[in-house]
Amino acid sequence: MAQRFDAIVIGAGAAGMYCAAQAGRRGLRVALLDHWPRLAEKIRISGGGRCNFTNLDAGRIDRFAGENPAFARNALRALPPERFIEQVRRRGIAFHEKHKGQLFCDDSSERIIAMLRDDCDEAGVRWLRPVTVEAVDPDEGPQGRGETAGAGAGAGADAGAARGGFVVRTREAGELRAGAVVVATGGLAIPKAGATDLGLRIARRFGHRVVEPRPALVPLTFDPQAWKPYAELAGVALPVTVRAPGTPGAPAFDEDLLFTHRGLSGPAVLQISTFWRRGDPLAIDLAAGEDLAARLVEAKRATRQQLSGAVAALLPRRLAALWLADERFAAIAARRLAEIGDRELAAVAAALRDWRIVPTGTEGFRKAEVMAGGVATDELDPRSMQSRRAPGLHFVGEVVDVTGWLGGYNFQWAWASGFVAGQAVGRS
Ligand code: FDA
Question: In whole numbers, what is the pLDDT of the chain averaged over residues?
């Protein structure tokens, strides 16, 4: 006979463990399933092994992307970063702020995993792992509550109504039944760490719209031929301001840029990749907001430098040399600043401050930190993360179309969405 639970949480990652512990504490019989041999692989590898577990600014809705980032407000208010930080403190986990509000463990991500695992154990959560979930269906069997509608397979409005509960079909543990299911299966990033499309399949099966998933927080790539001269700069890093001018409302990021053999990376590019759309250019200020024209004019008055020397004093030397080899500037690169008109200097500065380049693609889900897109938020209740199509079905964490900036925002979303679902599950 199939095992029965009050709630089955699919995916023992950040959102799933947080949710299961909350639901278990409420006295529910909760099963937590995961197919990956090692627990919470994404937490383990996060933050270079030190887990950037939240950000002091993670309560700010403007730090999230998606069709409707405001959807996240309710969960982030219910479980703001301070509450998670307090929990980390109570467990005696030492941490530090690294950069722009990013909080990292002092020693290892394992501490966060152990905290969440202990929380689940203390809440009486039943672990089922490794167990691969293959599908979730409305429960139409004799053990269902008999109110199941939409018997047909496949997506559609009818398939969504599942008032009789759910059957979770697994490879190793057969069929499991529950009145509520929480889908916490994460996104498509890094299949080598256990990512699958199961959550998106479950969403579609219950008639949910899925916002086209795409890799985010990911390096951008360029046409190999066009990139050839820049490939020689691989390893060069510098602070920049980067924008995605083709995406209205996209933020500008002041972060470091890194040249690679295939394109651009570093925090600046990872951040903007969430907002960049294929075919659009990036706009990069290589002077990171500095008034370069004024600096060059100042250098002209104060020194006997050549243009090449003056630019090399402001940018990494190899980048300056490559830039000035461009046909627009080659003729004046070796001239003394004093021989160059202020307008010409201003033109050099303007070009450096608005470098437009069009990436051809991204390094894909293989290298992305997260998936942008996912289960559309308009058919989820922000107070419970519950499906409006299939009562009892909840979606939490990265599988939902809410994508945080780089810097601890995605974990905060995982904890917060897991928290509200864990509080609400089984109540409908
Ligand atoms: P998560 O991916 O954590 O968990 C999903 C779980 O579902 C997995 O355990 C998986 O095995 C399981 N699963 C999938 N399919 C299944 C199936 N068919 N059957 C059973 N189980 C299944 N974020 C941040 O805020 N700070 C950081 O420092 C980092 N660093 C970072 C580094 C790297 C390299 C990556 C790839 C990502 C990050 N992130 C990050 C992002 C962060 O890891 C991510 O957003 C969260 O882990 C998402 O939490 P979820 O619980 O939604 O998914």
Answer: 93
Q: Does the pLDDT of residue 81 top 90, yes or no?
A: yes
128: Cβ below 6 Å to ligand 1? no
The confidence band for 146, taking pLDDT boundaries of 50, 70 and 90, is very low
Q: What is the pLDDT of residue 428?
A: 66
Q: Is 36 in the pocket of ligand 1 (CB under 6 A)?
A: yes
* Ligand 1 lined by 199 (C-beta under 6 Å): no
Q: 5-27 burial, b if ≥16 CB within 10 A, otherwise e?
A: bbbbbbbbbbbbbbbbbbbbbbe
Q: pLDDT tens-digit profile of 275-302? A: 999 999 999 999 998 899 999 999 999 9
Distance of CA 191 to the CA centre of its chain: 15
Q: Confirm if 253 and 407 have CB atoms less than 8 A apart.
A: no
| pTM exceeding 0.85 | yes
Ligand 1 geometric centre to CA of 395 (Å): 14
Mean pLDDT of 366-392: 98
Do 156 and 207 contact (CB within 8 A), yes or no?
yes
Is the pLDDT confidence value at 149 over 60? no
Distance CA 221, CA 37 (A): 33
Q: Could you identify the residue written with the tokens 């887990």?
A: 51
Percent of the chain scoring above 90 in pLDDT: 90
- Rounded distance between C-alpha atoms, residue 256 and residue 267, angstroms: 6
Task: Report whether residue 198 contacts ligand 1, using a CB cutoff of 6 Å.
Answer: yes
Compute, in angstroms, the gap from residue 391 CA to the centroid of ligand 1. 25
pLDDT tens profile 206-225: 999 999 999 999 999 999 99
**Which phi and psi angles does 5 have, rounded to 5°?**
-135, 165
277 burial (CB, 10 Å; 0-12 / 13-18 / 19+) is exposed
Which sign, positive or negative, has the C-alpha torsion 320, 325, 329, 332? positive
Q: 121-137 pLDDT, tens per residue?
A: 999 999 999 999 999 99
Q: Are strands 126-128 and 30-33 parallel, antiparallel or unpaired?
A: parallel
CB atoms within 10 A of CB 153: 10
Q: Is 52 in the pocket of ligand 1 (CB under 6 A)?
A: yes
CA distances in angstroms from 328 to 222, 232, 325, listed in the order given: 22, 20, 8
Give ∠ CA 170-171-174 in degrees, rounded to 5.
Answer: 55
Among the listed residues 256, 261, 270, 258, the one whose alpha carbon sits nearest the alpha carbon of residue 229? 261
Structure tokens at 179: 């009145």
Q: What is the CA radius of gyration of the chain?
A: 25
Beta-carbon count within 10 A of 34 CB: 26
